[in-house]
Specification:
The complex is a heterodimer. Chain A is an all-beta fold. In chain A, about 0% of the residues lie in helices and about 50% in strands. In chain A, strand 4 and strand 5 form a beta hairpin. Chain B is built from no helices and eleven strands. The chains are: A mainly beta, B mainly beta. At the A-B interface, strand 5 and strand 10 of A face strand 4, strand 5, strand 9 and strand 10 of B.
Chain lengths: ~120, ~110
């Protein structure tokens, strides 16, 4: 049974940092690209970042480039998102998602971890 | 970045009637490998999204055959042949041909 579980969300002040984690099980983590997607309250989905299965290639959305870093530890089956210089507009539920073998995001998502950036 | 534009943004539908959602991209979604990586996701209230359709028209495992996708180039369509109560939710197209991946704004399907 495939499971993805995010953690690390919370309330943080603007300009501060936060690190999200996503622990996965039920599939061979080291064989899959992984992604972070976020959803601001009452808004649509926004792709945030992606990383190749071996961690060598990273991709970012324009709104987070230079502030967020995606990484992974294949020995721990864990995906990370380091978020720096947080802004109020980063407030959202952050989901991790497995990459689909035929392109895009698979049907396997976590339940999300909420991040609130507020003074 | 590629802009994905969905219409309509809201679609009230009578049970058993069809629904259609359009998704247009600002650039061609044909990859250098010749494949068009345009997918559709469904998000039911309070749930994470789920994959419905990949590469324009391929239904993901377990997706009912009342869902179908079509299109090419920059114009794509998701159709529900006969809407059921469980289809209520928000539908998103996403292009995964070019980084950064981009979603449409979402189309809310609700029962009239």
């Amino acid at each position: 049974q495939v499971q993805l579980e995010e953690s690390g969300g919370g309330v943080v002040q603007p300009g501060r940092s936060l690190r999200l984690s996503c622990v996965v099980s039920g599939f061979t983590f080291r064989n899959s690209g992984m992604h972070w997607v976020r959803q601001a309250p009452g808004k649509g989905l926004e792709w945030v970042a992606g990383i190749s299965n071996d961690g060598r290639n990273e991709y970012y959305g324009d709104s987070v480039k230079g502030r967020f870093t995606i990484s992974r530890d294949n020995s721990q089956n864990t995906l990370y998102l380091e978020m720096n210089s947080l802004r109020p507009e980063d407030t959202a539920v952050y989901y991790c998602a497995k990459q689909f073998d035929f392109g895009g995001l698979d049907d396997y998502w976590g339940q999300g971890t909420p991040v609130t950036v507020s003074a | 970045d590629i802009v994905m534009t969905q219409t309509p943004l809201s679609s009230p539908v009578t049970l058993g009637q069809p629904a259609s959602i359009s998704c247009k991209s600002s650039q061609s979604l044909v990859h250098s490998d010749g494949t068009t990586y345009l997918n559709w996701l469904q998000q039911r209230p309070g749930q994470p999204p789920r994959l419905l359709i990949y590469k324009i028209s391929n239904r993901f495992s377990g997706v009912p055959d009342r869902f179908s996708g079509s299109g090419a180039g920059t114009d794509f369509t998701l159709e529900i042949s006969r809407v059921e109560a469980e289809d209520v939710g928000i539908y998103y197209c996403i292009q995964v041909t070019h980084f950064p991946w981009t979603f449409g704004q979402g189309t809310k399907v609700e029962i009239k």
